[in-house]
Specification:
Structural class: mainly alpha
Number of helices: 4
Largest sheet: 2 strands, antiparallel
Helix content: over 70%
Mean pLDDT: 83
Oligomer: single chain
Shape: globular
Radius of gyration: 12 Å
Length: 80
């Protein structure tokens, strides 16, 4: 059950990050989940563990990390 909760929060973080960067609809749901989880890891490593926590993830640094991950991923995948 914990893994499902983590995936749901990761999808939410990825969707918010994609919405902020303006490239979330191009990536799809699965890649938004991956971007949310990777963004959470990267954001917490770079910006720390501050702000509200949900499912073991600090939300503000996770969203900032997801924006970075979505922007980088869309840069590499968006130019075809």
């Amino acid at each position: 059950m914990i893994m499902l909760w983590t995936l749901i929060i990761g999808a939410l973080i990825g969707a918010i990050g994609g919405g902020i960067s303006g490239r979330g609809k191009q990536m799809g749901c699965v890649l938004n989940i991956i971007a949310g989880l990777a963004g959470s890891y990267i954001g917490q490593a770079v910006f720390g563990h501050w702000g509200p926590h949900l499912a073991g993830m600090a939300l503000v640094p996770s969203i900032l990390g997801a924006v970075i991950v979505v922007a980088v991923a869309s840069f590499f995948t968006g130019r075809r």
